[in-house]
Write a structure and sequence with these properties.
Order of helices and strands of chain B: EEEEEEEEEEE
Number of helices of chain A: 0
Largest sheet of chain B: 7 strands, mixed
Order of helices and strands of chain A: EEEEEEEEE
Largest interface: A-B, 25 and 24 residues
Shape of chain B: globular
Strand content of chain B: over 45%
Strand content of chain A: 35-45%
Largest sheet of chain A: 6 strands, mixed
Distance between the termini of chain A: 35 Å
Number of helices of chain B: 0
Oligomer: heterodimer
Shape of chain A: globular
Radius of gyration of chain B: 13 Å
Structural class of chain B: mainly beta
């Protein structure tokens, strides 16, 4: 299985909004609404931010939102804050009953 | 609230077998519905899903690992394990154990802190 495709980096200024894309195929992202997003700060374990395309776990800021169209899912962060600077990974359930991650996107808050 | 803690050999020689264990607290690995996963991250690189196991013993693996990986449960110790055979430098990574609340479909809700495994002679 091939990794999902994410941009290597995105950046934005405090208060702005950014969107990170995650492109897969009809065998993963396009097949189900089981796309998740994770935030990872340096030296830390990833943290679940979005599940099932657009749902936020308890405790995650409503500045984080997710969506999907066809084979591409997206994570949007509004009102950027300094603490949002991190790596972000998408993942998807696949038609082979496996999981696949994206390559990761480094978010820089300018 | 589940807590996961990885342990195992931090240094493995090439061609040997990597062995890691994930101790689970705050819940039982025999609880229906949960998935118990291993995920790794080479230094400076992205996450790679290795595989997961259900309390029934059913498993799924990343096909790219070519049958080198085996995940198993130890119900008596409330832990699950990973064995990866014939390791090479490419297997050097931080290895995370993780769990999901729903078999197969769940995201990775809980993560261990990760443990670095270096493959070197």
């Amino acid at each position: 299985q091939s990794a999902l495709t994410q941009p290597a980096s995105v950046s934005g200024s405090p208060g702005q909004s950014i969107t990170i894309s995650c492109t897969g195929t009809s065998s993963d992202v396009g097949a189900y609404n089981y796309v998740s997003w994770y935030q990872q700060h340096p030296g830390k374990a990833p943290k679940l931010m979005i599940y099932e395309v657009s749902n936020r776990p308890s405790g995650v800021s409503n500045r984080f939102s997710g969506s999907k169209s066809g084979n591409t899912a997206s994570l949007t962060i509004s009102g950027l804050q300094a603490e949002d600077e991190a790596d972000y990974y998408c993942s998807s359930y696949t038609t082979s009953s496996t999981q696949v991650f994206g390559g990761g996107t480094k978010l820089t808050v300018l | 609230q589940l807590q996961l803690q990885e342990s195992g050999s931090g240094l493995v020689k090439p061609s040997q077998t990597l062995s890691l264990t994930c101790a689970v607290s705050g819940g039982s690995i025999s609880s229906g519905g949960y998935s118990w996963s291993w995920i790794r991250q080479p230094p400076g690189k992205g996450l790679e899903w290795i595989g997961y196991i259900h309390h029934s013993g059913s498993t799924y693996y990343n096909p790219s690992l070519k049958s080198r990986a085996t995940i198993s449960l130890d119900r008596s110790k409330n832990q699950f394990s990973l064995k990866l055979t014939s390791v090479t430098d490419a297997d050097t990574a931080v290895y995370y154990c993780a769990s999901g609340k729903q078999w197969l479909l769940s995201p990775f809700d809980y993560w261990g802190q990760g443990t670095l495994v270096t493959v070197s002679s």
